[in-house]
Each structure stands twice: as structure tokens, then as C-alpha cells.
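G., the chain you wanted modeled:
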Amino acid sequence: MNRKFLFSSAMALVLLGGCEPGDQTDPTEGSTLAPGAESAALQGTEPGGELVNAEPIDQEAGRRAGSVGEGQTTCQVAFRVWVAAAIPAGDSIYITGNDPALGSWNPRGLRLSQQATGEYEAIARLNGGSKIEFKVTRGSWETVEKDKDNKEISNRVFEATADRTIEIRVENWRDQANGQPAALVRHPTERVRELLKELEQTDSFLASVAGGKLVSQLLAQGQLLSPAQAKGIEEKLQDNPEDLPSRVALMGYYQKLEGRHPSSEGPYAQLILGLIKHHPRSQLASRTGYLLLPREGNMGDEKAWVAGGKLWLEHVKAYSTDPVIAGNAGIYHYTDIFRAEAQDQAIALLQQAHELDPQNGQWVWFLGDIYSSKSSAFETTADQRQAFAKQSLEYLEESMRLSDRQASAVQKSSELAAMAHAAGEFEKARSYAKERLQAATPQSESWNYGNVIHNMNVILGRIALQEGKLDEAKHYLLEAGKSPGSPQLNSFGPQFTFARELLEQGEKAVVIEYLDSVGKFWADPEARDPSNQNSVRVAQEHAQLLAKWKKEILEGTIPQDRKWR
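Predicted structure as C-alpha cells:
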């Protein structure tokens, strides 16, 4: 888990101006959500009936959604999508475009996650200086976006010249003949009034998945309010600043009104600061750091984020024995991945929360994620990386032990396997990897199945090789190559470190066979949509690269490409 590219509930938008050189991070197994932690799966309530913390959202989607050649300039781009159109149960939202990080026009390119605040979000690392074209889909060209009049729309276009946030509203889908989705037909004031009443019903409802979805509906409905309707709700909130539902609806209204560049002093930021001030124990408040961090268009406008941090520390001081407030404050500072002092503050606050509430697994999950990021930082030594991996493993194991959802615990074993291997604890890594493989099915994993098959077999193979079991290592390399592929593997291909290690043992034949298997999902132009010439071209380039590597191997040399390091 490398948090270099952050992603979470009410997403990050944590982009600094300008592009950065491509780093050495390649996409690995990942999901836009923490395993088992759907954004609306809220856990627990406080006496006042507010939403309180859910198991955290995975921070990995954005940082894994991009890989480029050494020295190539890249930009971080955050995609934020509001959907007015109806979405059938079980469907996901994707960005597809002409960049490999967007699937090279594969309609299931970059998967977005629905956040607790309603929108769908992901971060990708795109080729800098290029013209990016993209569309939004539900996973196929039959479900691509259309305009509010149910007409086809042109590709969306922007220049990837700097880190930025792209905000989109989807009005309709190709497979939905009616341009006015049933979920939003009713008059906004009437529907918001019903939602406000419903949201105030019971604590048990608030703690449910349905409760989280209702918050998302409130935000969506808030975007449909007229100025007069918003004013009425605003007056209600002024009379009672503790009115959480009204605040959420107004957040939706001003989120749309202020657009991509909300000011620190504007109503949207003030509503979020009010969320911290009046509802510090709520799950939504724990995600305010992602909403207040400066982003493209107002990068230097840090007043609101600084004010939010000050409010959190005041709460922690006033309620020094409250673990939820300490933990929420820690999550707030955790969102600023670019400043070491913010990360140090996050560690201190999350540790405080854990000491006060040692049975809550989410505090240690965040701590494990922070130390996982430290374990992959380039400026650290090998000994430091191993020490950080051990610390991450300790926290992640504790988080899994405390989880009351077995499915979530099994899925977390992917991260545990990776950290255990990095920490040199091979028995644990082997156990976690095998557990993950045994539990994985195409049905349970969906698009992530190929990642699990490839990455867990690679971990098992590297362990076998490090233990001197060469035949076993070769077996696992071939098993990894049997992966059916995934959005990440199809676009970026795997990391070939394990293949290089076997080449260093003189095992040319098995590596060549593995490369042939990889070519089936990474480098087969005939498997790509023939109408998508860019996707076909990318597969052809991959095929040329594989041919080059195989030639080098047969000539007795090891490829020097960065993917082989």
C-alpha cells in the first residue's frame, strides 16, 4: 500500500500544481475501496444519532492507476463524477480514455468509487503534455454516458499539462431510453424534505448501508435545489446548527454552485467547517480533510484546511478521552500526504485513538497504511523499508483481528501478504497469499480476480526462490501467468522483478513461457476492440516490447527496463 496517490471517501483532490517525473511505482492488486469497506457501509453510532466512522476506504486506487516509463513526465488527475442518471444495482462507474491509465478506451478502464458524500471518484497518473480524451461508462459501450436530452456526446477533452481535478456530471446513459431518471423526477424540495425526515428516524438506520446511501441521495438532491429552496434550508440550519441533514443537503447545493474552485471563505467550505465544529464524531466529519485540501484552481488557498486542522486539535484538547474525535482528527491530517508534519500528526492522533479504543480496528488500519507508504518511500534505506513494513504488518494484522467481517478480513490478506513479504516474514506471507488465492473466485472478485491470481502467485514464487526451492518458484511464475488479466494488468502489465530473479538463476525457458502468457492479456492486438485504434496500437507496442525482451533473454542478457528492477 503506497499512499503516493491518495484516494478515499469524499476524495482527496489533494493535487499540487504541475507535473512530476514518473516514479518507480507500478500498479499492483487493488480496488477503489478497502476490501469489504463499501463507502456506505457505516459502522456504529453515537448517542446523538450521527454517522460515525466506517471501516476506511482504500487509499490505493489512485496511486495504482498509472505507470509510465522512466523519466517520462506524468500528471496526477482526479476525476470526480456526479451522476444524475439512475444506476442499476451492482453497476460500477468507469472513466475510459486514450491514456493507458484510463484503459486505452477499454470501457472498463479506470473504476471509480462512490463516496460517502455521493460522488464517484478516482485518481489517475496520466502522460504529461498529452491531449486526453475520455468518457464515462458503466462498464460497456452500451452503457456509455449521454446528455440530458438522451443524445450522444463527444469525447470529453483536456490537456494533461498540470495536476488537476476534472469534475463531471452524467445526465443519462445510452441504455436508458428515458432522459429523466426516475430517482430524481420528483420536486427537489419535496424529496429533500422526505429525506431529512427519513434520515432523522433511527440510529440503527443511520448505521446501515441504506443510511449511507441516503446521505448520498441528500447530496444529489441538494444539487437540484433552486436558490429559494436552498435559502429555506439555510434558514433552518441557522436556527439549528446541529441539523446534520440540512447541512448535508446544502453541501450538495454549494458543491455544484461553486464548482471546481471553491474558496476557503465560500459557503461550501464554511459548511464543511461547520461539520467539523458541530459533528466531530460523525463519519462525514472524518472525511473533511479530503474536501478542504487545496486543489487545482485554488492551490494556494489553504485557509479552510488550516482552520479545519485547528478545529480538530481544539476538539481533541477539549475531549481528550474521546477516541472517535482523536481518530477523526487523525484521519483529517492523514489526508495531507505531501507534508511530513501532517503525517506525524496523523500518527500521533491515530495512536491516541487506538490507546483509548483498542478494539476499534479502523485506527490501526490507517496506521498500517501510513507505515506501508513509508516502507515504499524511495528515500529510505533497505533496513528502514523493512522496519516500516514490519510496523505496517503489525498494525494491519491487528486491524484484521479486530474486524467483525470475515470477508473483509480475507480480502485484507492481500495487503498482509505483501507487507509480510517486504518485512521478511515469509511464513506469514505464504499463509496470507494462499488464503487469498483459496478464497478468490471470478464471481467474488469481479475485475480484481486477475490481480489476485497474478500477485499472490508472485509472492509465493519469490518466497520459494528465496528459500532455494527453484522448481517451486518456477511453478508459481507460470501460475501467475495464468491470470486472465485485469484493468491494471491489461494496461500496464505486471512488474517483472520475479522474472528477473529467475533469469539470474539461468531459467530462460520458464521466463519466456511466462512472457508468452502475459502477452495474452497485455500484448494481443486481436483481443482489443478493433474500433478502438488507440487500444490496438498500445497492445502492438506491448507486443514489440515483449519480443524485444525475449530476444535479449535468448541472447543471454537481462532486460534493463525499469519494470524488471
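Residues 440-565 form one domain.

Shout if anything looks off.
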